Amino acid sequence: GKLQWLESFLFCNSEETRELVASVLGQIALDMTRDQASGIITRMLSLDKDESASVEQRQGCLLALGYLAASAAKHLEDSMRSAVVARLFEAMGDSKRIEIATSACRAIGLVGLDGALPVPEGAMEEDGKGAVEGGVTVMHIVSRLGSILSGKEKESKVYDAAAFAIGSLCVSCRSESLVAACLDKLFAASKLQRVEELQLCVGEAIACVAGARRYTAPSLLCQLRLPSAYEDHAKDAEKAAEEW
Questions:
Q1: What parts of the sequence cross the membrane (predicted)?
Q2: What CATH number is associated with residue 196?
């Protein structure tokens, strides 16, 4: 039906279209029954595990999982949301396909913005690696995001997505140990010799962690965009900033 038609656009070549369609699915899920929302998530989990799936298909599935787990949280069993988080965590460790890791980081950030992750907080070991006992923990996720931020990938989008995710985790969950762990990873990343755009993205994430505030614009500071409230009618961000 119409839902299947919409889902088909999740697997197109356009990154912007995949993100848009995933967000639309998330909004539609607000009016779905528990069985309907769970059915879509189960289908996305299955498609993502398909060995014949293209990179674009997997990216679309991961983004959809992020938006669905965030928007339809009240319709889903904790076990279903935990399965989504576990799958996103696994995809974050995909070293062969950096695009997959990028989409997974983006998705885990979306889930974190909407509420605390449906997994135990866990503990951070002295070596900085998450201690996992009986499954994925929030600290294990923070540890992996920190590892991504300190990596040597040439593709900057994965760093932006990792910083976004770390900042998102502390918007709803204000545990002292989690806030400290997230700030530690972000401050460590800020000391690396990276491009200005990433430093801006890390700074935005630090503000989210420190102040429990949501991101103020659909486009991050790493894209040199200001919050829409400061733009003029012609969408001239630089002019608006000067006037402001």
A1: none
A2: 1.25.10.10
CA distances from 68 to 39, 61, 111, 149, 177 (A): 11, 10, 9, 26, 28
Q: How far apart are CA 117 and CA 73, in angstroms?
A: 10
The structural domain count of the chain equals 1
Q: What is the 3-state secondary structure (H, E, C) of 205-237?
A: HHHHHHHCCCCCCCCCHHHCCCCHHHCCCCCCH
Q: Tell me the residue range of the domain where 8 lies.
A: 2-243
> How many angstroms separate the CA atoms of 140 and 107, rounded?
16
End-to-end CA distance of the chain: 48
Chain CA centroid to CA 111, Å = 7
Q: What is the pLDDT of residues 38-53, one digit of tens each?
A: 999 999 999 999 988 9
What contacts 122, CB < 8 A, 6 or more positions away? 130, 131, 132, 133, 137, 138, 139, 140
Residue 219 pLDDT > 60, yes or no? Answer: no
Q: Which amino acid is at 32?
A: M
Residue pair 101/155 in contact (Cβ under 8 Å)? The answer is: no
Average pLDDT of the residues in 155-181: 92
CB 69 within 8 A of CB 111: yes
Long-range contacts of residues 116-120, Cβ cutoff 8 Å, at least 24 apart: 116/172, 116/173, 117/85, 117/141, 117/169, 117/173, 118/78, 118/81, 118/82, 118/85, 119/82, 119/85, 119/86
